[in-house]
């Protein structure tokens, strides 16, 4: 009997490995939970195109924006775990969204499978090129002089960018007026037009307008400076009273529906990690304002689980709750 069980298990493993070796036999869908042109979309398409180019896979980007990026994650959770459905998620919709939206019933640790960590990016605080604010210290001084008057635009309520700003406000003992948008691009346009005074965004989303001379970067929120903006100081190095250790970054990674064949996941993880070791690919990611960072599947899973748990208290302390 034990021989039969062993033989059946071995046969199942052989079939599974054979399926993985022949994968993919049709186009692979990469769900992008944000509109075209944003930071997540740019990185997702870069990775998808490079994987297709390097391995001959046909990976098709499928933009499914909405509900702070959680609509695309929900779509991924409901997709068939057959190795042909993936989602390019990030911190906001994977580990923060579930604590914010009462309507969400999925858990990223239980209902999704980690595939590959791709990159991380600091949050950027910027203003228009013709703004009177030359430094972040100028912003803090103005906010202290006239509380609840300075406005800042963000990609939306409850995003890591929004919450990073509330953490900064509390540390610096200031109060800004939040103007949420449906993505970074419309927020940037209003800041450039002078309708909103400050922009808080990911570096990838804002880098193009910075390079075009339309935005003035004031600070990044990571522990170290961004390689894309080496002349822009970090928040913690500015010595603002009340702000000591300050490190808030977002991150990007590939996930799959829970139950996706592990052999396929391992194949994609290996392929993505190989891409991230390529100097040209690394430069392309850095050119978008992000820092490439490869992880093995297990390490990414541990990272996801810890970050998901950590942000529960951050969201609760912020008092933000969305329907």
UniProtKB/TrEMBL annotation:
<dbReference type="InterPro" id="IPR005064">
    <property type="entry name" value="BUG"/>
</dbReference>
<comment type="similarity">
    <text>Belongs to the UPF0065 (bug) family.</text>
</comment>
<dbReference type="Pfam" id="PF03401">
    <property type="entry name" value="TctC"/>
</dbReference>
<feature type="signal peptide">
    <location>
        <begin position="1"/>
        <end position="20"/>
    </location>
</feature>
<dbReference type="InterPro" id="IPR042100">
    <property type="entry name" value="Bug_dom1"/>
</dbReference>
<keyword id="KW-0732">Signal</keyword>
<protein>
    <submittedName>
        <fullName>Tripartite tricarboxylate transporter substrate binding protein</fullName>
    </submittedName>
</protein>
